[in-house]
Amino acid sequence: MSTTLMVVIGAVILFIGYVFYGRYLAEKVLKLDPNAKTPAHAMYDGVDYVPAPAPVLLGHHFASIAGAGPITGPVAAAVFGWVPVFLWIVFGSVFFGGVHDFSALVASVRHEGKSIGEIVRRHIGERGQFLFLCFSYLALVLVVAVFTILVVQTFVAVPAVATTSLLFMVLAVAFGLSVYRAKLPLGPATVVGVVLLFTCVYLGVIFPIKASAQFWTYFCLAYIFVAATLPVWILLQPRDYLNSFLLYATLFGALLGLIIGNPSLRYPAYTAFNTSGGYLFPMLFVTVACGAISGFHSLVSSGTTSKQLANEKDARVVGYGAMLIEGLLALVALSTVAYLTKEGYAQTLKEMGGPTGLFAAGVGQFMNYFGIPVAFGTTFGALALNAFCLTSLDTATRLARYAWEEFFSTRIPALANRYLGTLATVILAGALALSGSWKEIWPIFGASNQLLAGLALLSVSVWLAGLGRDNRVTLYPMMFMVVVTLTALGFLIRNNLAKGNLVLGVPGILLFVLAVFLVVEAVNALGRIKKAGPNISA
């Protein structure tokens, strides 16, 4: 069997899932209404609520959710063998991650574009909202810390990426002003924008900017503060849209190389249940992370994306489709391991500095099959990956700001300030990032992120039950994710406390306790709904 065939089979399953299961979710469960007025129109404010064309919103959403997770996760999880990772990516994306993202987006749109926290308040209760917002805020701080470290490491290791990223920011602002203020048609503006995008890549390679890790850390923290407080149409929306073409190009290049080169599948199908990555259950599901399902996605869906959805009919391609494209990206990431031997995998991980480096090296090798120099292809893969790390970084900061504002708006209104909320997030995440403990933060991030997915599915399940609809599509995945992630978090808490690492052990305990209490609140809410009967206006 070849590596190419593995990816093709996975891609076909993802496509079938989009056509049939996606349609079932859209028509029978979520019942999309193309005539409904979305919050982007009804609550337009020019800052957060701004309607976007479907291609632009897909680009924003995909760029926001497709950070390092779907690349780092599958590569790291390959320690269990390629078959378990493949199965979880494909079926997890279709029946878990896609359902999670899609349902969170639609639930938010039906609640004035508010976050999952507000949905929890209305259908589970005030105490449930308190627990969820605390949990999601802590999880987002971990996200910001992890992606800050990853971005900085790439800036230092590949200075060309730093130059390109800075040029991307300038280009995004110019694109946003051109489309939203000068009213240039999206098509021509996109063509010019994409050409300039790849020009930025070229200029980055020629004029690399070299600086210390400390400098880039402070630069990133200052950048995300500004980016998270600016109106979405100025930087976030246009930058994400243009950046999506960079990742599409990376996907296309890697897939074309796989088809032409058709490398053999040499990596073991299965290695062992207990490996250096822990036990296959539950650590496989936590390690693959965003490659199959991610709680961060529900915060993007209900945080920025729902406020930009121009028509409900776009929710399927944006919410469900983007997750399946991310599943395809995860398969490509797995393929960069699958063509290696077990020994080659360990050696490449060491030589390239970790999973992200291995992925970039694999992309470079695949592009070489159709004539692109390995060095250029490797640099291009690193550039694309870092662009999306940076995208996820400032999106996560904005989402943390939303959670902060939502938490204090009804409790201490004076603190519900977007600048204060952003500053608090930057300071907390910055303190973790400056510690440089990526390897220690990542497992806790993965567990909390997957647990957040389970809690988001739990919230949507309560909402659907209140409407009297069949909520099994969200309820069963929720049960699995909660059991898996609480188990994994328990292992990680034990390991960190055994090492005396209170910095990560204590937050792990807080996340575990918050999650358990929220599950209890939700179960009580489901009991009340079952007793009182559904409310079609819920």
Keywords:
538 residues, mainly alpha, two-stranded antiparallel sheet
Write structural notes for this entry.
It is a single chain. This protein has 21 helices and 2 strands. The protein is 77% helix and 1% strand. Helix 7 packs antiparallel against helix 19 and helix 8 packs across helix 11. It has one domain.
Shape annotation: globular
Beta-strand share of residues = under 5%
Helix content: over 70%
Q: How many beta strands in the DSSP annotation?
A: 2
Low-pLDDT runs of 5+ residues are none
Structural class computed from helices and strand pairing: mainly alpha
Distance from N terminus to C terminus (CA atoms, Å) equals 51 Å
Main sheet record: 2 strands, antiparallel
Radius of gyration: 22 Å
Overall pLDDT: 89
* Side-by-side strand order of the widest sheet: 1-2
Number of helices: 21
List the helices and strands in order.
Answer: HHHHHHHHHHHEEHHHHHHHHHH
Total individual domains: 1
